[in-house]
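Figure caption, in words: inputs first, then the predicted bound structure.
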Amino acid sequence: MLRTSLTLLAASAIVTALPQAVPATSTSSAPVFEIDGAKQYFAGTNTWWLSHILSDEDVDHALAEIAASDLKVTRVWGFGNTNNGVDQPVYFQYLDNTTMTITINEGANGIPRLDSVVRSAEKHGVQLVLPMLNNWDDLGGINTYCNYFGCNKTTFWTDPGAQEAYKNYVSFIVQRYKDSPAIFSWQLANEPRCPNCSTSIITEWARDVSRLIKSLDPNTRVSLGDEGWLCGGEDYAYSCIEGIDFEANLNIPTLDYGTVHMYYDQWGYTSDWGNKWITDHAALAKKHGKPIVMEEYDVKSTVSNQTEILQQWHHTILDTDIAYDSFWQFATDLTDRDPYDDYAIYYGTEFYDRVVIPHSKAMLAKTI
Ligand SMILES: *[C@@H]1O[C@H](CO)[C@@H](O)[C@H](O)[C@H]1NC(C)=O
Ligand SMILES: *[C@@H]1O[C@H](CO)[C@@H](O)[C@H](O)[C@H]1NC(C)=O
Ligand SMILES: *[C@@H]1O[C@H](CO)[C@@H](O)[C@H](O)[C@H]1NC(C)=O
Ligand SMILES: *[C@@H]1O[C@H](CO)[C@@H](O)[C@H](O)[C@H]1NC(C)=O
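Bound structure (2-acetamido-2-deoxy-beta-D-glucopyranose present):
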């Protein structure tokens, strides 16, 4: 209670000090999502692979385990591109750069895989965040558009041919699933970056694409999927060197919330720094009147105090205005692949029960 009233005081002080318009929500509590018919805090996870595995049974048991863990949302790759039709076991779009044709893969290793995820998510009451482009090369990212259109990772954002193809794909996906209650958010991309570019390039791109999506489906949330890079400081994550201005993007009317990723180890920071990264973003929820999500974070299983770090971050998340958080990543036994990576947390393990489950319960129990 004390914390809440202090925060309210601080917010009204800002309103008095600044003559420009501040969103009405800035004086009330920070915005949270309405999900399952109620405004609430919650936890979620990431399972990029759910749409890239071939077994319906695997999709179904993974989503059943996610639901049983009280994880409300999972983030699944809504993209999968190929240029040659053979380098990906599952792909949704084929940008054939020899015949120069672009097709949607309606075969068994194509869109039916995504259909299976959406159906199963509906059945288990889990909601999906679907990014529709990868900044990285994995599973066919910007590189597959550029192998076709001759762009690069800087010019992609404004290349007319690449943008038309990307928007056609986005329109296809949005129109196919827009009536499903299982879509939490359409997401423009996974970790868009334009290193050393003016941040206006990606801001204008995000404005344009999010407006297109809202015109096709005004009822579903839209998010950017960026890592939350801030501007105005000298320090790497605060220098907008990756071409992303988190606050400018948060002000785009057709983006409904802000996404933040956190890989302190890959970015040259300490795990303690993570608490500042969470707190600094959480403070922007009230300022801009939009929910903020810690969308990807985890500690490698090789780090000796992995448990303590995760628990400390979870405390920080619970203590601040983060609307939901989703760790990277949930893993389980599958028949045709192992979703292992350095950050995977396997369902049913002692570690999962000690770190994931208490946090998802604590988020649900947090009062608005
Ligand atoms: C076509 O795509 C392949 C990847 O499958 C790439 O190696 C090749 O360079 C591309 N061709 C052109 C002309 O860009
Ligand atoms: C992409 O191409 C442009 C124009 O040809 C060039 O200025 C830029 O440096 C290239 N960027 C990358 C990342 O290669
Ligand atoms: C960005 O610019 C800096 C300084 O000019 C340079 O060191 C760095 O390599 C550039 N990064 C990219 C990805 O082009
Ligand atoms: C984890 O270990 C690192 C390195 O020894 C230390 O800097 C950090 O404070 C520890 N964090 C926690 C929460 O124990």
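The domain at 33-79+115-365 is CATH 3.20.20.80 (TIM Barrel).
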